[in-house]
Amino acid sequence: MNIIACVKQVPDTEAQIKVKADGSGIEEGQIKWVMNPYDEFGVEEALRLKEKNGGDVTIVSVGPARAMETIRTALAMGADKGIHVCDPAFDNADAYVTAAALAAAIKGMPCDIIFCGQRAIDDDSGQVGAILAELLEMPQLTLVTKLDFAGSSVKAIRPIEGAQLLIETALPCVVTAQKGLNEPRYASLPGIMKAKKKPVDVKNAAALGIASEAKAKVAKTTPPPARPPGKIICGDEPAQKAVEVARLLREEAKVI
Amino acid sequence: MAQGVWIVAEQRDGALRKISFELASTARKLADQLGTEVGAILLGSGIEGLAAQLGKYGVDKVYVGDSPVLDPYITEAHAEAAAKIIKEKDPAILLLGASVQGKDLAGRLAGKLATGLATDCTEVKIADGKLLAIRPLYAGKCFGEIVTNTNPQMASLRPNVFPVAEITKAAEVVKFDPGVDAAKLKSKVLEVQKDTSGKVDLTEANVIVSGGRGMKGPEGYQILEELADVLKGCVGASRAAVDAGWRPQKDQVGQTGKVVSPNLYIACGISGAIQHLAGMSSSKYIVAINKDAEAPIFAKADYGIVDDLFKVVPELTSACKKLLA
Ligand SMILES: Cc1cc2nc3c(=O)[nH]c(=O)nc-3n(C[C@H](O)[C@H](O)[C@H](O)COP(=O)(O)OP(=O)(O)OC[C@H]3O[C@@H](n4cnc5c(N)ncnc54)[C@H](O)[C@@H]3O)c2cc1C
Ligand SMILES: Cc1cc2nc3c(=O)[nH]c(=O)nc-3n(C[C@H](O)[C@H](O)[C@H](O)COP(=O)(O)OP(=O)(O)OC[C@H]3O[C@@H](n4cnc5c(N)ncnc54)[C@H](O)[C@@H]3O)c2cc1C
């Protein structure tokens, strides 16, 4: 099988995010960068498919020079090779341009299945997988928590509000990974050593032949609205405090 | 020139979902500012009768694509049908729900229409005649204001955040041929396993009582279920509780779980890690019950109780029961 996994490098979830004084973005200085957690599920599923059915796994990432670390992490987990789309022209890419860059890098490669995360935990658009599928004219399976390979198709479980769907989709297709799909492995020490020698192709916008005009633009970034300070309910007995909170919820907040 | 504020209404099993009314009411407000019409796309099979309901929330015209090929929902089929009518009528703004189905469709449509999309917005307004969509980023650690330079300017709206306003109005129903060839579809729904608990999904709940590691084990959740029953709400959980196997994955709130916006979120034995806050800080009211006065959850809470939750929660249940009797 020819398997592709798209990975994005994102700030560690513990990272302090500070908005630049002019609102033009965030301060990147102190941030520790990691693989988007949902992409770990995608890479893991790709590796499991390869281990069961043979084939190889290619990692594709669009990002600045530092994104190479994340590609190497995926190679250390067991992927075979990488493509790094790296060009300052993509610094202000929106989801559409990112998907277009991924599509251009993937087009022409033999491909049975493409994994993405269901969303990137930084910019959180949750759309790159779907746009990529559209641009490559493939069907999509988003938010997948279980995947079974059945030759020329896959069967997937997708949770929706109040139900689960079992869907069968013809290959090739794009799958976006949701938590629950699997338990991602850690890169082993020998894996990390081997990863250093695995091939990674670096491509710029010109090589891919795509325009990079973003359609959605970030006009401004702002800190979250401050929440008014809350009340700590005083009292001697748990019952007394509980009665007071119930009263406040009813009379002040009017939510019960 | 592109004109009109449109929504994609969401229905399941022949009933409109609440997000559809939130979308319609929001579109109405934006359209009034622009002096334009509200259009709604309604797709499914045997659903024409639902169109009138959308009028009550401010929709002027409902474009109904009614065909067996549109039921149950398949991304490719719905995206193709929606794109067809959008290309024909050229709306300026298109709103969808940031529900599972809405997000799935929104991305695909943005790809088909080659336009910009702002996901999971908590506020939308008109500035200089264009849509300004405001959305949380980095798990709510900052907000971005998004402007799209192509039409339709797309945004998906977080469920339970935008108010619903009823007005009396009759919507005009316009039927169109969805133009989807069933033989070309590559996906098929084989089975729908419905949750039979009778509870709504966390993302649609008005009240959520959530428990974390402080619940000590799966049995601990009994008292949360009782409180949730009294408040007609649902029970959620932190990742610590889900990873321990105390609660199913679908109950997890946070960065790697669900993003919820209930009117009331009661966090019991949850410390308030940044990844948990990412999933619930847009709740309208937050109550925290934790025995550690230093727990970060208190910084987000409107009302906090520093005490043993096993003593407080049953008392809160009976106090609420009395008030609601
Ligand atoms: C403040 C701010 C606000 C933004 N708001 C918007 C917006 O409203 N609309 C918009 O279109 N763009 C927006 N962007 C730009 C957008 O976030 C990036 O272009 C990003 O690459 C794609 O969106 P995402 O990270 O949210 O990806 P998602 O769609 O959430 O990512 C889903 C999956 O797609 C894959 N993927 C995503 N990005 C990459 C990548 N670079 N390389 C490889 N795989 C990838 C991964 O598998 C990932 O798990 C914003 C950026 C900033 C800084
Ligand atoms: C990439 C990543 C993604 C993550 N995603 C999520 C996510 O989606 N959702 C999420 O929740 N977490 C997520 N986490 C985990 C998060 O960092 C925390 O570990 C987790 O939220 C802690 O859960 P908790 O608050 O239940 O447990 P703890 O932090 O252990 O807190 C338990 C609390 O219970 C209190 N307590 C104990 N006994 C009692 C009692 N008898 N009465 C009252 N209070 C009591 C304690 O004082 C303590 O504050 C993620 C982490 C990472 C790294």
CATH topology of the largest domain in chain A: Rossmann fold
* Overall mean pLDDT of chain B: 96
CATH class of the largest domain in chain B, anyone?
Answer: Alpha Beta
Major β-sheet strand ordering of chain B: 7-11-6-1-4-5-12
For CATH, the homologous superfamily of the largest domain in chain A is named as HUPs
Structural class of chain B: alpha/beta
Number of helices of chain A: 7
Order of helices and strands of chain B: EEEHEHEHEHEEEEEEEEHEHEHEEH
Tell me the major beta sheet of chain B: 7 strands, parallel
* Order of strands, widest sheet of chain A: 7-11-6-1-4-5-12
| Cα distance spanning the termini of chain B | 56 Å
Whole-number count of domains of chain A: 2
Biggest beta sheet summary of chain A: 7 strands, parallel
- Architecture per CATH nomenclature, i.e. the level-2 architecture of the largest domain in chain A: 3-Layer(aba) Sandwich
Number of strands of chain A: 14
Low-confidence runs of at least 5 consecutive residues of chain A: none
Bound molecules: flavin-adenine dinucleotide
Question: CATH superfamily of the largest domain in chain B, please?
Answer: HUPs
In quaternary terms, these chains amount to: heterodimer
Provide the β-strand percentage band of chain A.
25-35%
Question: What name does the CATH topology of the largest domain in chain B carry?
Answer: Rossmann fold
